Amino acid sequence: MTEPQASQPQAAPQRIPTPRSVVQRLQYDPQADIERAAQDAEAFWLEQAKTFVWTKEPGQALKWDRPHHTWFADGETNITLNALDRYAKGEARTRAALIWITEDEQAHIYTYGTLHDRVERFAAGLQSIDVKKGDRVIIYMPLTPEGVIAMLACARIGAVHSVVYAGLGAGALRDRIEDAGAKVVITADVGYRRGKLVDLYAIAAEAIQELVGVDYLVLHERITNLHREHDSRTVDFQELMKQGKAEAVPVNAEDPLFILYTSGSTGKPKGVVHTHGGYMVGTSYHMKALYDVHPGDVFFCTSDIGWIVGHSYIVYGPLVSGSTIMFREGAPDFPDTGVLWRLIEKFGVNVLFTAPTTLRMFMKLGEQVLKPYDLSTLRVVACAGEALNPEAWRWAQEHLGGGTGEGAHAVVIDNWWQTELGAPTIGTHPRWDAKPGYAGKPLAGVDADVVDEQGNPVPVGQQGYLVIRKPFPSMMRGIHGNPEKYAAVWNENPAGYTSGDLAMKDEHGYISILGRSDDVLSVAGHRIGSADVEDALVSHPAVAEAAVIGVPDSIKGEAIHAYVILRRGFEGQVGRGLRASIIEHVRHILGPIGTPAAIEVVESLPKTRSGKIMRRVLRAQAMGQDPGDLTTLEG
Ligand code: AMP
């Protein structure tokens, strides 16, 4: 871990009570849960678990042998029995499960009955190409119902899905397919972004070119015969739908449900493993308790299935709780800046889950963009994934929530979690006072703290490391193929699981997230390892060495700034398209989110005597600050 880098804590802002007019609209009061969990967290989670459908009900909660933990390990179920069968086979059969909106604003509604049918069929299709329990399947799909169907179909037969965000490039996709040891890749011909087609099939075909372990490339054609040349392993998505229907395969609660790759501080992708049982219980609990979403509500989540928020709150959380989830392909300001707000009005959305970057974008555009729309059906606006700065909170509370007075109809809440944690961990419940700049308090059943390197709690108002002392059900069970890395996150700090974030606590137990303590960047809430971008840069023929840092960006939180040392002979090409060529190269490997906003050509990089690049010095230089202690700097 590098030394703390985060910005200094701000002066303590006030706590702002949720207006009574909003509290009256809330449906769930978690106070009893909080008290029960404080008394006995394991019993609390087991009681929650017993409200689900199990083929064998668990009698056991946590088994804990640090760093390993299991939950409900004597239980047997399949998450799709809970997400689909129990609704599709009952009165809720005709309830809307998915409302999918295309980029050009067409709405497609899938009831629980329809979704169940599609998943049963695609699951049988996967079986017909020999996908079995435990096999890994990569899903590289645009944000469409077929992406959701593919995830659920894998789960149904006990296969392990690994969704790769369809904005990532061929190199990042190949690394993930290889690391997962996937035998099948599912993709679509195209995705839509700002009216343009993104050729996903070409990227997927390039990624698997030399991968002999991949047996099939499943292609969902949105445009008939767009691709004339197919990789010989290609099979048609719709053909696979014609192979009959598959029942849910009962699996142990601890069997893996998915692997989701995220960035760590080293270049290798980190495949976070989640399970059927604990993940199901943990994610759906927060649907009611934190987000206050209930059957009959419309819940609009603006994330993507490529991220943990999409797994938990587009797919599993909403469906396991029997709610109606709305999601949309495309950018939030395209085809015009009114699209999100028009959809909220049109569908009477009750709860919106979005990213601070999106709120900041609209804050910059100005509230006149929202004015024409009736947003009064909203009751909760939840934000996660990156820091929700006080200005953005205030703006959103005023313009999406109706202010802080008694006329308000909604409350804006922050919540903090990670791919590794599966579900909200620290948050501000809608009934709790908001404290802008603070994510909130540990939620029911969570034991989190801010500590020093020795694991001792740091005093109120001081910066420390955010740790979780004891496991909870939706936490990851491992890192695929890398037990050492998994053990390290539990062993690095004696107090517990190390989140990699720096934080500060106030006298009421509210926690403010101050930034990362490692070399991980956050661009529009997406985690990108500095090392991933540096590896991509040095794979360009002109680049000898590279270092990247995050510089503050008023909308995206951070932007990537790259420093490169050129190989001999390339110096003359600066100014002749070399920077653009390097940027394009990185974009091809990592996709748009890993692409540097700026490239600076330098003669040397600040390094320690042991040769490690001191990004802290680059950061200080970029921001005109004092670089601090330079005693380890190479002479
Ligand atoms: P990911 O695993 O991609 O969801 O990224 C998790 C990281 O995003 C955390 O370790 C934090 O650095 C950051 N993050 C997530 N939620 C918040 C939040 N509410 N406030 C501040 N940072 C957050």
Automatic annotation (TrEMBL):
Gene3D superfamilies per record: 3.30.300.30, N-terminal domain of ligase-like
Q: Where is the AMP-binding enzyme C-terminal domain?
A: 533-612
Q: Which UniProt keyword terms apply here?
A: Acetylation, ATP-binding, Ligase, Nucleotide-binding
- Xref: InterPro entries: ACAS_N, AMP-bd_C, AMP-bd_C_sf, AMP-binding_CS, AMP-dep_synth/lig_dom, ANL_N_sf
Domain AMP-dependent synthetase/ligase: start-end pairs: 91-479
**Enzyme Commission number:** 6.2.1.1
Extent of Low complexity compositional bias: 1-14
Domain of life, per UniProt, equals Bacteria
In terms of NCBIfam families, this protein maps to: PRK00174.1
This one is known as: acetate--CoA ligase
